Amino acid sequence: MKSIAISGSPRENVGKRDAKELRYEGKVPAVLYGGKEQIHFAVDAPALKGLVYTSEVNFAELNIDGKKYNAIMQDIQFHPLTEKILHIDFLQLFDDKKVTIEIPVKLTGTSPGVKMGGKLVQKLRKLRVNALPKNMPQEVEVSIEPLEVGKSVRVRDLKPTDYSITNVPEDTIVSVIMSRALKQAEQQAAQAAKK
Questions:
Q1: Domain-located, residue 194
Q2: Calpha distance 165→168 (Å, rounded)
Q3: Splitting the chain (195 residues) into consecutive groups of 10 residues, what average pLDDT does each group show?
Q4: Helices assigned H by DSSP within 78-169
Q5: If you write DSSP's letter for every residue of 41-54 in order, what string do you get?
Q6: Is the pTM of this model over 0.85?
Q7: Distance between CA 159 and CA 151 in Å, rounded?
Q8: Which residues form the domain of 158?
Q9: Are the CB atoms for 155 and 169 separated by under 8 Å?
Q10: Which among 37, 67, 92 is the end of a domain?
Q11: In whole angstroms, what is the distance from residue 80 CA to residue 43 CA?
Q12: In this structure, is residue 139 part of a structural domain?
């Protein structure tokens, strides 16, 4: 998984007034937790673009006052009107400790059911993956090669080796359903056969 370098400076004061001042200066108040103690720091807002405004999930390599921490964005708060980042929480990662993250699903291949006129419906766009940081995939690939009309791929059908998926095994990821045009064609064929 990709890692984005972000530099931050420690915050002396923690509170609403201090957070407002930081935002006025173009910085975002942040906190890193999951280690021995919480670390409150501030980050320049433009430095977060590559981490926040993307469909990918990336690790953050935080440099706070000369110390480096590996982390993942855990929570983010936006202003309801301006969409500016108000606050961001990071979870510290450790090489020997598993973490659960929502990872995007990437569909691969071509479905024979779609070629026959079926409609591809993707129900899950992200899956909850539990793994060590070094084994965390950038995306979960799901092959739609075997999908005929009326068939689907469920979470239980995936057999990853380096990580586990914590979604309900019965959840449908993607399916091929009969399209309206295909239904009409079948109905017309059935009516023609009756005559």
A1: no
A2: 9
A3: 88 83 90 90 90 85 92 91 91 92 93 88 95 92 92 94 94 88 70 72
A4: 112-115
A5: EEEEGGGGHHHHSS
A6: no
A7: 18
A8: 99-182
A9: yes
A10: 92
A11: 20
A12: yes
